[in-house]
Structures are given as C-alpha cells and as structure tokens.
Amino acid sequence: MPAKKPAAPKKRLARYRAKRDFTKTPEPTGGRPAAEKARAFCVQKHLASHLHYDFRLEHRGVLLSWAIPKGPSLNPRDKRLAMRVEDHPYDYRTFEGVIPAGYGAGVVMLWDEGTWSPEAGFENVSVALKKGELKFTLDAAKLKGSWVLIRIRGGPTPTGEREQWLLIKHKDQWVGVINVTEKFPTSVRTDRDFEGILKSDPDVWQSHKAAGGSDDMQKIIEKVLDYTDKTKSGSAAASPKRSPARARKK
Fold first, then answer.
1. How far apart (Å, rounded) are the C-alpha atoms in residues 227 and 217?
2. Residues contacting residue 182 through CB under 8 Å, at least 6 positions apart
3. Average pLDDT, whole number, for the chain?
4. Is the CB of residue 82 less than 8 Å from the CB of residue 152?
5. Does residue 6 register a pLDDT over 60?
6. Which sign, positive or negative, has the C-alpha torsion 169, 170, 171, 172?
7. pLDDT by residue (tens digit) across 164-223?
C-alpha cells in the first residue's frame, strides 16, 4: 500500500485561518517558499489576554506551534508546560507588531529566531509528534543546543482542552541557571520592548481602521503600559505617569 502523502500546507492552515479575519488583522497568511531548505525556528513573546511565549518549529511548510506560559528555560530541571496550538503560516515567523482585534489581539515580539533540526532517531517529525516525543537541536540567538518536547496529555478532549506538552532543555554546553526570559526580555531583531514596538511606525497597521476604531488599540496600549509598570515595579524610583501613545493612522 503506498504511503499517504502529507497534507498540503493550505489544508493544514485551514484551522488557523478559520480563527482570523485577515481584513482586520495584519498577520501573514502564506506558506513556506519551496526554495528555502533550512528549518525555521522562532519564539514570539505575545502579550494578549495573558503573557506567553509562542514556540514555533517549521515542518512541511508550516510552523508547528506551542504556547508556553512561563517561556523557555535553560535549566534542565525546569519542565515548562507547552500547550499545542494550531499550525501557523511559515511567513508568520518574522512577524512583530500589533494584532488589533479578534483572536490573539495584543502585541507580538520576535523574541528569538534561528533554525532547528531533529536529532537522531527523530528524523520523521510527524511520527515523533504522533508518539508524543520530539528531540531536536536549536541554533538561535538565545536558545541553543539539545531540547525535547514530551506530550503529557493527549489531544483535544470533550471539555475542549488542548494537547499538553513539556519543553525541557537537555544537559549540554548550552545549559544555564539564568532566567533567559528576564535576562534577555527584548526583541532579537529590533531590541524593542512591547512599549517600543507600539511606538514604532511599522507596528501601526492600516487594518487598524477596519478593526473598529481606536477602542481596541486603546485596550492594547493600556495592557502594555500595565505590563511595563509591573516589570519595573522593583525599581527604586517610581516611573513617571505616562499618557497613552496615540496610534498614527495611515
């Protein structure tokens, strides 16, 4: 019996697109260009309804994705909960900016990027995912070396719960005791924090008008200012009160 062909990226992205209105959201929608061979990897720090880190591994033209509430850790003793989410488009890997409304509304930071490769015995990524264990090597700016994703709970349940995995760093020369998310909190590409992303011209999207006026953007601004204040709450001097930034309409 001939082996089944892998599902086309277009079909695999149907679930992703179903949750989004691309007339209102400046997110890319396409798949991976055939000419590119290296497997892309990225982590996007996402301040939406809550802060989390979107961990993405490119596979068969799309980005396999896990939401990690606490973010990755370089300490092998830390077992980070990783919730499997829908596959994302390949060109989403470089996205940094504002999602103005709807699913995932908030600010996205490109926290880390690079490439990845499955380790020996895990070359068949689809089979590894089905079995619930994937060992791989990362070569990025902040995360490097050997890692593993292990599923601890099966697929969607009648209560709507997602697959639950653990992201664990293997012992190698790239382990560390520092909190990598606190030590390196800004964008790997622009060195901006969330507030800096909001203030930058590229992050004010024309689709913001279609998202229903300034109310959605105002909520995002307030969320970012609140997050910034909380992260700076340990400083000796109190931060001066700031007026919300105004989004420049195009």
1. 15
2. none
3. 79
4. no
5. no
6. negative
7. 999 999 999 999 999 999 999 999 999 999 999 988 864 433 333 344 444 577 888 888
CA distance 133 to 166: 10
Q: What angle do CA 190, 192, 193 make, to 5 degrees?
A: 150
Direct distance between the N- and C-terminal alpha carbons of the chain, in angstroms, rounded to an integer? 56
Closest CA to 56 of 12, 106, 8, 92: 92
pLDDT number for residue 247: 36
Q: Which of 127, 111, 110, 1 is nearest to 60 (CA)?
A: 127
- pTM value is 0.76
Residue found by looking up tokens 């279609």 in the block: 210
pLDDT tens by residue, 75-101: 999 999 999 999 999 988 999 998 877
Residue 100 contacts residue 205 (beta carbons within 8 Å) = yes
DSSP letter assigned to residue 155? S
Domain-wise residue ranges, the chain: 9-230
What is the β-pairing status of strands 80-89 and 164-169? antiparallel
How far is Cα 90 from Cα 48, in angstroms, rounded to an integer?
21
Alpha helices in 69-172 (DSSP H): 125-131
Give the containing element (helix H, strand E) for 205: none
Question: Pairing relation of β-strands 133-140 and 164-169?
Answer: unpaired
SS3 at position 242? coil
Q: Residue 55, SS3? A: strand
User: Which of 146, 142, 149 is closest to 66 using CA atoms?
Assistant: 149
Q: Is the pLDDT of residue 7 over 60?
A: no
